[in-house]
């Protein structure tokens, strides 16, 4: 499969038209989408129109942009003008936003073609894409297994060859974990590096948008496209988009890499083995690799599952049956509000909203939410200590390869899927998952590269090196 970079180059140089590129991917979707269910909607008509406009720009001698004619799949919690944005929830079924998210505008400006909206765990709450109101997405490598979550549809779309790149959102690992399980690259940027304007909020102090791709260089190109300051997002960092692509081939000579000891405990042996092989490859490339302790990550999952639901309970209060989305019947406003939420929200969303409301309630705020915030601060301190002596940190992305549907039906077992990814969200640091061989059942294994805030340049440099050393896998 051609990379996004190659496709854009072909379109700009008229070796292929954007319409031809799009039709190739639409055929792949027609062949396999029914069994994978990566999409909530494939926007064929508008995509063909957008591709034709790209071809007109090329024919006129102008440059359509760095993503000229590249089809991009969008997680269905990113607002798209006049195209349904549902968050895979009945409460927003059919809702069409009046505007595009900033990242969508930037993709279009760079010449990308939006091919459709991908399935997710409802309101991005889940680690398997089993909690969608519109049915689960299946892992293209093994249809009996989950693709991870919550951005499982985006990860599966790239892995299945439905789109060369996709966007997801990462609140506690929702880009990196499905990337690992589907054998693609997934990036959570520094918090604030990519605008959240137009991302339907789950937990606002954690949420971040990032790319999925088949290789590190494509992920770098997409992040360069969508990154940079946005005055419409009050949490946006006032810096330009990072320059990443130029340094990908610089190697790892002289870099100090720390293997986080706490994130090797409780991890399946096949995954740990691949992480150690990655460490050996880095050493052979000239990096120094040793064990490093980040003690507070052991409490990261507990803190996250208090703070994030607390923020969700506030953010999801807007779905009241009054302003937009589903409205159920009720004898008075309070009854209508309650009925709308009962009918519109799934069990996982209801459980997390209730948990968050409890954590914020009088008498429990200090005991739960307040303590969780202190753990968040402690985690930041421990990461700063680790980065004082290391440039990059390394860990598994997921504790296991993709599991089978229904295997992790109890919440605690499912929440442990986020053990390795949540810490970076707690502190706002960037992290990337890179495929590195396979584990049980021949399923992909992902290795996580973490960096300090705004350390994307070195993070991508290391990720690119790891990718070059990874065992080759067969395509889906």
Major sheet details:
11 strands, mixed
Total E-strand runs: 11
CATH class of the largest domain: Alpha Beta
Derived from helix and strand composition plus strand pairing, the structural class reads alpha/beta
- Please trace the helix and strand order, writing H or E for each element: HHEHEHEHEHEEHEHEHHHHEHHEEH
Shape summary: globular
Question: Would you give the CATH topology of the largest domain?
Answer: Amidase signature (AS) enzymes
Please, how many helices? 15
Q: Number of domains in the coordinates?
A: 2
CATH architecture of the largest domain: Alpha-Beta Complex
Helix content: 25-40%
What report would you give on this structure?
The termini are close together. Helices cover 39% and strands 12% of the residues. It is built from 15 helices and 11 strands. The chain is globular and about 65 Å long. The mean pLDDT is 96. The chain folds into 2 domains: 1-297 and 379-476, Amidase signature (AS) enzymes; 303-366, no CATH class.
Which descriptors would you attach to this protein?
11 strands; alpha/beta; 476 residues; Amidase signature (AS) enzymes; 15 helices
Q: Layout of SSEs?
A:
Elements: H1 4-12, H2 18-36, E1 39-42, H3 44-59, E2 71-75, H4 102-109, E3 113-118, H5 152-159, E4 165-169, H6 176-182, E5 185-188, E6 209-213, H7 216-226, E7 256-260, H8 269-284, E8 288-292, H9 300-315, H10 333-344, H11 347-360, H12 365-387, E9 392-396, H13 411-415, H14 422-427, E10 431-438, E11 444-450, H15 456-469
Parallel strand pairs: 2-3, 2-4, 7-8, 7-9
Antiparallel strand pairs: 1-3, 4-6, 5-6, 5-10, 9-11, 10-11
Helix pairs in contact: 2-3, 9-11, 9-12
């Amino acid at each position: 499969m051609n990379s996004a970079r190659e496709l854009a180059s072909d379109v700009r140089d008229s070796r292929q038209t954007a319409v031809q590129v799009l039709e190739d991917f639409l055929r792949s979707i027609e062949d396999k989408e029914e069994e994978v269910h990566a999409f909530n909607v494939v926007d064929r008509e508008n995509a063909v129109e957008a591709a034709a406009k790209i071809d007109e720009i090329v024919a006129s001698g102008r440059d359509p942009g760095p993503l000229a004619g590249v089809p991009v799949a969008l997680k269905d919690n990113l607002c798209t003008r006049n195209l349904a944005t549902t968050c895979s929830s009945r409460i927003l079924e059919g809702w069409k936003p009046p505007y595009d998210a900033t990242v969508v505008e930037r993709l279009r400006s760079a010449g990308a073609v939006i091919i459709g909206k991908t399935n997710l765990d409802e309101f991005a709450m889940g680690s398997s894409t089993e909690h969608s109101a519109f049915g689960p997405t299946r892992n293209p490598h093994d249809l009996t297994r989950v693709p991870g979550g919550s951005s499982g549809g985006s990860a599966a779309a790239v892995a299945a060859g439905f789109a060369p790149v996709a966007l997801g959102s990462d609140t506690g690992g929702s880009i990196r974990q499905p990337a690992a399980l589907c054998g693609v690259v997934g990036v959570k940027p520094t918090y604030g590096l990519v605008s959240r304007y137009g991302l339907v909020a789950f937990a606002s102090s954690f949420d971040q948008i990032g790319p999925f791709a088949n290789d590190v260089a494509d992920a770098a190109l997409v992040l360069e496209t969508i990154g940079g300051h946005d005055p419409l997002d009050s949490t946006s960092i006032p810096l330009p988009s990072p320059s990443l692509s130029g340094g990908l081939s610089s190697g790892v000579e002289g870099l100090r890499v720390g293997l986080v000891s706490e994130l090797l405990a409780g991890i399946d042996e096949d995954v740990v083995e691949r992480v150690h092989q990655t460490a050996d490859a880095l050493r052979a490339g000239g990096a120094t690799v040793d064990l490093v302790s980040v003690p507070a990550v052991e409490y990261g999952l507990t803190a996250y599952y208090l703070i994030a639901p607390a923020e969700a309970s506030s953010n999801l209060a807007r779905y009241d049956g009054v302003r937009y989305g589903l409205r159920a019947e009720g004898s008075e406003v309070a009854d209508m509000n309650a009925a709308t939420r009962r009918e519109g929200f799934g069990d996982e969303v209801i459980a997390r909203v209730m948990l968050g409301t409890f954590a914020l309630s009088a008498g429990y705020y200090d005991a739960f939410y307040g303590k969780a915030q202190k753990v968040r601060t402690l985690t930041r301190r421990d990461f700063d200590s680790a980065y004082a002596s290391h440039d990059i940190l390394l860990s598994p992305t997921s504790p296991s390869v993709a599991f089978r549907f229904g295997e992790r039906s109890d919440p605690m077992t499912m929440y442990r899927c986020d053990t390795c990814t949540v810490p970076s969200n707690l502190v706002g640091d960037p992290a990337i998952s890179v495929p590195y061989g396979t584990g049980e059942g021949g399923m992909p294994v992902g290795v996580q590269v973490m960096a300090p805030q705004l350390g994307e340049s070195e993070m991508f440099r290391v990720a690119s090196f790891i990718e070059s050393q990874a065992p080759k896998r067969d395509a889906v």
